[in-house]
UniProtKB/TrEMBL annotation:
EC code(s) of this entry: 3.1.11.6
Gene that encodes it: xseA
Transmembrane segments: 433-452
GO terms classed as biological process: DNA catabolic process
Name of the protein described by the UniProt record: Exodeoxyribonuclease VII large subunit
Exonuclease VII large subunit C-terminal domain sequence ranges: 138-411
Keywords assigned: Cytoplasm, Exonuclease, Hydrolase, Membrane, Nuclease, Plasmid, Transmembrane, Transmembrane helix
Length: 456
């Protein structure tokens, strides 16, 4: 029972992890496609089992030294370019890419061209040049220049008589009618092709009016396109200072010139598309951009106007509030002023009444004091008059006494003088005594005056 459980569990796990055939084939195809650069461009082998159909030829390519094989197909568009038939038993070199057919789950080579082994020397030279250019970094993406998006003058290196010229011009002017096309004629196949192409490429690169260079020609067999694998042509394109577009042959034609170009195109018509802007699309984009700008501008303006309107409304509300506050403040100020006036009037009236009372009281006091002072002055004047009388009386009494005493002394002096033997001396003494008397009288009068002043 445990074994059955284990087997059942294993089956369930297998069912969950198992891939479908379709998923497996898709994964194989994706893996091969992602690893395409690991496969060679050229394969050598012996042709067998060739079967021609209307749409292409199937054959088997067998290893020259063993029994290993791989299936090949060459579609009619490529088969018709090959000179000669595909012959069984012939040793050939094919240019092909590895292709996985998912519906049938088989791997095959999708052949673009092939040569008998007798032509293998040129193929080896091509591979040697390819490796050399790769080592120099001429295939690297980081050295490629961007092709101008809006060139005013395009230089075209091609045959002036081939269809490539018209195909390019029709495509370019169909997209950008105003662009200038300057053609530099060159031989694009044959023995003179290499120097002709190199000269035309260099002439276009040296022209200061040229914004980009297109090197192109129509499709053909590998032999007719071989000049675009020649080293002088390839290096002339790689050395261009002007951005280059190379379109050689058809979809699956590949040359070294295309590998070193800044941009590769499949056909001359596509080169016209790659080298020019689609002015209709540009105009449509401009119109669309204008609409978007107008819409955006209208939206922005509307939003800004709405925002400004809101700000104005808010400002008006704020101003109205401020005005209301202002009016309220003015009213409060008026009320306060009225209250102040009332209080001031009340206080002033009370203070004035109080002041009037005080002034009246002061006047009454002054009047009383004046009356009292008048009475006092009258009494003082009476006292002064009595005092003056007393002084006068005392003065007279004192003076009289002094005068009497002086007269007596004078008389005694005269008596003494008269009895003196020196009358003159007596007379001088008398005069001195008179002076002394006068001085004494003056001093007496001055003393009386000072005393009287002190009393007052």
């Amino acid at each position: 029972m445990a074994v059955d459980d284990e087997i059942g569990s294993g089956n369930a796990e297998a069912n969950e992890t198992a891939w479908s055939v379709a998923r497996l084939n898709d994964e194989i195809a994706a893996t091969l496609e992602s690893a395409a650069d690991r496969f060679p461009t050229y394969v050598v082998g012996e042709v067998s089992d060739a079967t021609a159909k209307g749409y292409g030829t199937f054959f088997t390519l067998r290893d020259v030294d063993g029994d290993e094989t791989i299936q090949c197909i060459i579609w009619s568009s490529y088969r018709d370019r090959i000179e000669g038939d595909i012959t069984e038993g012939e040793e050939v070199i094919v240019r092909a890419n590895v292709d996985f057919y998912t519906d049938g789950g088989r791997t095959q080579l999708n052949v673009k061209n092939y040569w008998p082994v007798g032509n293998s020397e040129r193929s080896q030279q091509l591979e040697a040049l390819r490796a050399e250019l790769a080592d120099e970094g001429l295939f690297a993406d980081d050295r490629k220049q961007p092709v101008p998006s809006f060139p005013s003058n395009i230089g075209i290196v091609t045959s002036l008589t081939g269809s490539a010229r018209e195909d390019f011009r029709e495509a370019a002017w169909g997209r950008a009618p105003g662009v200038t096309l300057t053609f530099f004629g060159a031989t694009v196949q044959g023995t003179n092709a290499v120097p002709s192409l190199v000269g035309a490429i260099r002439q276009a690169d040296q022209d200061p009016d040229i914004d980009s260079i297109v090197v192109t020609r129509g499709g053909g067999a590998d032999d007719t396109l071989w000049c675009f694998n020649e080293e002088p042509v390839v290096r002339a394109i790689a050395d261009c200072q002007t951005p280059t577009v190379v379109a050689i042959g058809h979809e699956d034609d590949e040359t070294l010139s295309e590998r070193v170009a800044d941009k590769a195109a499949i056909t001359p018509t596509q080169a016209g598309v790659v080298a020019t802007p689609d002015m209709r699309a540009v105009r449509d984009q401009v119109v669309a951009l204008e609409r978007r700008l107008e819409t955006g501008y209208a939206a922005i303006v509307t939003d800004r106007l709405d925002a400004i309107t809101r700000r104005v409304d808010n400002a008006i509300v704020s101003i109205e509030r401020a005005a209301d506050n202002r009016r309220a403040q003015i009213q409060r100020a008026a009320d306060l002023e009225q209250r102040v006036d009332t209080i001031y009037a009340t206080l002033t009236s009370a203070r004035l009444d109080e002041l009037d009372s005080r002034i009246e009281s002061a006047l009454q006091g002054v009047e009383h004091a004046a009356e009292t002072e008048a009475v006092t002055a009258t009494a003082a004047r009476g006292r002064v008059a009595g005092l003056e009388a007393r002084i006068d009386q005392a003065y007279e009494t004192h003076v009289q006494r002094e005068v009497v005493a002086l007269e007596r002394r004078i008389e005694r002096g005269y008596q003494d003088i008269e009895t003196s033997t020196d009358v003159q001396a007596a007379q001088q003494q008398a005069r001195r005594l008179q002076i002394v008397v006068l001085v004494l009288l003056g001093l007496l009068l001055l003393g009386i005056a000072l005393w009287a002043t002190g009393v007052l």
